[in-house]
Amino acid sequence: MAQPNYKTVFVFLDTDKYCSPFDLLVAVDCFPDSMIFKYENVTGEDAPKIVFDLLFPRGPAGAAHTKIFINGSNFEEVEKVVTATQNAMKSAPWGNSIIVDPRGGYSTAAAAVAKTFGTAMEKGLGNLENKKVVILAGTGPVGQTAARIYAAEKADVTITSRSLAKGQIIADNINAEVGTQRVKVVEVSRPEQTAAAICDAEIILAAGAGGIQLLSKADIDSAAKCKIIADINAIKPLGVEGLGSNDDGVELKLGVFGIGALAIGKLKIKTETEMINRATAEAQGLFDYSIAYTIAKDAILKKLAKAAAK
Ligand SMILES: NC(=O)c1ccc[n+]([C@@H]2O[C@H](COP(=O)([O-])OP(=O)(O)OC[C@H]3O[C@@H](n4cnc5c(N)ncnc54)[C@H](OP(=O)(O)O)[C@@H]3O)[C@@H](O)[C@H]2O)c1
Question: Distance (Å, rounded) from C-alpha 250 to C-alpha 248?
Fold first, then answer.
């Protein structure tokens, strides 16, 4: 019997009540002939049933063309779905590849950290090791993933939050993961507390919810040691006063370089697209934030090498 010509199928397991159209669109743009199946409000308990039902009908050859994309804004539930999916595959005769990018948090954070790394290298400030990084409102999917990546790069990380307790849970988890105290928390519940939180920062990443300004011009003027400021909020008002969405290495004041949300967004899309391409090229594997950061950092390193060769 002739081998079926398997179509690529992306199976979205989303822990939220609606599946983000953002990632559906990126997947369809990568593979216009693919099909999308989407499941919403998925929990760790639901995942194995769905996984078995998508693995068996196509057999091992077809399963290699079935890709699971795990999404959602609740990191804890997303982790449960990832673990349950991996465990289900371990007990099945074959598996398939799994992309994890909760609410774009992994690819966006990877791009944001890589862009700050690239600017630091370009401006002669060296790599991220031991750099004092402050992530403003660093408790959302993007901010906490950026903290995780900066910590893995051995930076000295501070996240701010309106709630010390909320931030502390995130810092404790990352510190346990890296095996040392690299992340601390400072409570910023009023704008006038921001200046004290950033007084030692060399790099500031504004990671707040859309449409909220976190950093004023006066705050920037007060941050005497700061060299790089990045913002991931593309919804007006933007996160950093005076930093435009498309700015990419623009000097905000003497010796302080800014990277805006859409400049980060370009690398984010490139990164997510490459995560999907790699997951599609491989029959199995986990494609998560660490792969996202490898992709984003490699793109920056290539750009730096090209500039150096000119
Ligand atoms: N550039 C890109 O390519 C790209 C891609 C995806 C997302 N984004 C953007 O990235 C940003 C972060 O996304 P996310 O999903 O991680 O964000 P999020 O979870 O919506 O918000 C991040 C944090 O902002 C803080 N926050 C919320 N409301 C606030 C308020 N009124 N005042 C002060 N702080 C407030 C909260 O921290 P506390 O409660 O701890 O204070 C929250 O944890 C958003 O602006 C999103 O639009 C950008």
Answer: 5
Q: How far is the CA of 13 from the centre of ligand 1 (A)?
A: 22
Q: Give every residue of the chain whose pLDDT is below 70, as ranges.
A: 1-3
Helices 289-309 + 105-122 axis angle, to 10: 30
Task: Note whether 141 and 73 are within 8 A (CB).
Answer: yes
| C-beta separation of 44 from 78 below 8 A | no
Yes or no: domain 9-100 corresponds to CATH 3.40.50.10280: yes
CATH 3.40.50.720 domain locations along the chain: 105-264
| pLDDT at site 3 | 65
Task: Domain 105-264: give its CATH code.
Answer: 3.40.50.720
Q: Please report, as a single letter, which amino acid is at residue 120.
A: A
Task: Calculate how far, in angstroms, residue 240's C-alpha sits from the geometric centre of ligand 1.
Answer: 13
Considering only CA atoms, which of 255, 257, 192 is closest in space to residue 231?
257
Pocket of ligand 1 (CB under 6 A): 103-105, 108, 137, 139-143, 161-163, 166, 207-210, 212, 232-235, 261, 264-265, 268
Type of residue found at 246: N
* Cis geometry, peptide bond prior to residue 237 (ω within 30 degrees of 0): yes
